[in-house]
Amino acid sequence: MENLDQLREELLASVTAADSLDALDAIRVSALGRKGRVTEMMKGLGGLDPEQRREAGQALNAVKTAVADAIDARHGGLADAALDAELAADRIDITLPARPESEGRLHPISQTFDEIIAIFGEMGFSVAEGPDIEDDFHNFTALNIPPEHPARQMHDTFYLPEKPDGERLVLRTHTSPVQIRTMQNNPPPLRIIAPGRTYRCDSDMTHTPMFHQVEGLIVDETTHMGHLKGCLIEFCRAYFEIDDVPVRFRPSYFPFTEPSAEVDIGCSRKGGELKIGAGDDWLEILGCGMVHPKVLAACGVDPDKYQGFAFGMGIERIAMLKYGIPDLRTFFDADMRWLRHYGFVPLEVPTLLRGLTP
Amino acid sequence: MRFTLGWLKDHLETDAPLNEITDRLTSLGLELETLHDRAAGYESFVVGEVVACEQHPDADRLRVCIVDTGSAQTQVVCGAPNARAGMKGVFAPSGTHIPGTGLDLKEAKIRGVDSSGMLCSEREMGLSDDHDGIIDLPADAPVGESYVSYMGLDDPVIEIALTPDRADCAGVHGIARDLSATELGTLKTWPYEEVPGSFESPIVWERDLGDEGKACPMVVGRAFKGVKNGPSPQWLQDRLRAIGLRPISALVDITNYVTFDLCRPLHVFDMDKLSGNRLTMRFAKDGEEIQALDGRSYRLDDTMTVIGDANGPQAIGGVMGGEVTGCTEETTDVFLESALFDTVRTAATGRKLGIESDARYRFERGVDPASALWGAEVAAKLILDLCGGEASALTFAGEVPEPRESILFDPNRVETLGGVAVAAAESRQILEGLGFKTKKQENKIEAEIPSWRFDVECEACLVEEVLRVRGFDNIPAVPLERVTPLSNAVISLPQRRVSFAKKVLAGRGMLEAVTWSFMRDAEAGLFGDIDETLRLANPISADLDVMRPSVLPNLIAAAGRNADRGAGDAALFEVGAAWQNDAPEGQQTVAGGVRAGMSCPRHWSASPRASDAFDAKADALAVLAACGAPVDKAQATADAPGWYHPGRSGALRLGPNVLAWFGEIHPKVLRALGVKGPMAAFEIFLETIPMPKGKAAKARPLLKVSAFQAVNRDFAFVVGQDIPAAKIIGAIRNADKKLVAEISVFDVFTGKSIGEGKKSVALSVTLQPLQATMTDAEIDAVAAKIIANVEKQTGGVLRG
Questions:
Q1: What topology does CATH give the domain B409-474?
Q2: What's the complex ipTM?
Q3: Is the Cβ pair B517, A199 closer than 8 Å?
């Protein structure tokens, strides 16, 4: 059996010496393959008597197992090394730019609409709509702006062609006609906001012929001016996301409200930079008031029973103030640099619960 | 409306500091617009007298002056050519900041002579560019008086924004009345007394207005003899200058003063220039002309009220007087007019003629009807005081309109409408303070509307008066009551679909634009016939003269502008209105988008390709799917309208209903819009997406997944060039509706090997058995059915 020990040492030494997977495989074939040395010796056991065969077989098996284990172990090591070598040769430049993807953006007007809806929605206002092309009744007369009223001239109205019966439709000069349509078609109590496009024949640094407004209307039997203040103060604080932004109500005039007010928010202009919040100056942001009894009556709502408030606000203005957009006219340019810079990632709809601004 | 603090104090007895007054104005609704403290920066300047003026020993152009500053005599070296002994000028002591130069004055030695302080030029004072010499004050200027008080600059100018309803505050007295109602001060009754006439007016009034008497319900006049019209006194000139008016002559200045002081516009005629002995309030004859006081000539029409004499119109009623009969320095005999004019007609006249005057501003808002009479008295007093002469008795025509009906006012409305409880007595006191005459009527207050308050017409107006005088700040803010414990849905499904469309398109890498609702008529025609009703009668510019029939043209133009700026790969969308006609139903909500240029920038590992119809189709399908449209049932048909490429565009339909158009824009349209192509686009008609029937169940149908292995088989069919892929897909699906689970087209090929007019379409079909794993024989049988059905329905044969 001495030669078995010798064989074993010899084979194990050659396994250890194998420097590649190919060399190792050659050793495996020459030792354990069909014509390998160990295999051949196994075949030779057939000529021995049972007792001898059993002993020799066990000894030979032990050699076979030891060599096979050594080959497996060596194989693992050599495979790892080979993989390491392969991976070491396979390198990318991770500083190369990733594949391009275009990122879309929502326009600030969409974002602002959604923020406004989120806030007033929590106060129970639902969203109403009306057409951009309006008739005289809805845009003016029903809002207590009779034909000779000077406010008509103030509105710089766009007109469509005169019809054979003398009627001239207009591009709505404000979202207020949606108040009228809502009251005509729905019984009180009502709580609606109406965001949309509005038009005035005016174009300069701070005016565009098309702009956006949001209208608000409550009609019921008890809502009074204190509610108007409460509602709009809450709105200003929520929208500008400044808890202590001062809000001031100032008497003003609109034909369709009585009493009427304009609302200012506090700001500072120190160092030429406009900052919303507590400061020594005021910025006008919206007009409001208690719905004029004549407006209620024009819509078939009994002014002796019902009352409520209405407000109207320029969307671009409050978007510019909140998001620091300097120039109104850029809103409608569709300059992709502007849209990417001032636009919003379409991740989620603004809510008060999750936050208004992404 | 501008006035000075001093002027206000003519009408209001008050010790309140300026900032309290201006804050109160704003809280009354008379919003402070600007406060101009004209004294700021001039506090140290005084009137000085040059008592001696000697040549400088070492400089030809300099003189050494001794200036009496009232408190001392000081030596000043002065270079002004007009410096001379005995003159009075404006002296600035050392240390003064000189506004015109921005420098602080220091004690100096000029060519060896001590100089302390300076005599100032207008430029140094920051008053003008005049630097020819030092200011030469009149000989009676009091030495030592501060420049500010000498020039009347110590009276700050207040400018308020007047809402159109508050005509009564277009006069200082009205403003004082509002302030006094807040108890900030006491209203003074203005010095108005009846001026007796010493002779009958040689001119009489006549009204010739037919049925339209309200154009001028009343006109009052009176004549003056022997007046002397020169410059008005300094105080009057100062006041007018302070509010930006140019003093002209005493007579004219008086009319302007009364206009601003009492909101009572007046006019004075030079009686010698009037023809005949009557003035007629009448409508102009069409085409009549008048030379107005602004020096311009106006052509009148028969809607305009004029004051005519025997020669023709001599004033435009309520708007402006005539030049020919106006007063000059030589005028000695004057006829004063104090009239009432209709607001609407005055506004229309002013607008038509393009005249903005202080009279028009007041008459179109409403002038106190009672003032026609007292205006003639107030003016007479001023004319006699400042110009001398004699006044005639009053002459008038028409009458003061009837006062309006009183309002019955429930004082509880201040709380129920205004949100703040105010005692009835306090409300009454406030109204009285504003000039209402009130009476108690059981639990209500009967309020007689003052003649000057045109804006007050109902109970709500009186609530506003009470609230406004107490200040809106004193209304407690109350939160709105919640209608339901939790918030309800506040937007409708169509509104949500607009939002879905925006989110999907932005999520697909597109930028949302908002473009004009209008566009150029000529270009709109490229997008279908334009309904006549959609052409604006008064467009802001020729570029924007028709309501857009599609959202695409403005987006295409925007993509072109971006390309001009070097950004040729545009992906823009807009969800907005497009118009078919002017009816409310003619306004459609459309999600439109354009993709121009390449799909992505050049990149080391991605290959850009030109955006094409299939990008637009994918956009449209994604939006439709997000909006809940049954996209699996939608058919693509090759019949998009004419602004799309005729061969590379289509519609997505549900039956006859068009959900969307998509494709490449017609090259001619792009050329007409001046934009480089190709460009892919889509228009999705959100309102045509069917609404779910009834209340949609939230639960999903049960998920059925087969336990058996799916099988993929590829087929390539050779079909006629014009056979749509959808037809082959349909034939495959119909071959075995149960087993065919998915079909995808993975190759479309044309070439010589296929044959003229033919194409090869390769499809991968997934068969999903539900009962048992398919055997080869079963698979072969289905494949044979598929091949047979495709052949039957499309004429296609399996490619060998």
A1: Phenylalanyl-tRNA Synthetase; Chain B, domain 1 (3.30.56)
A2: 0.89
A3: yes
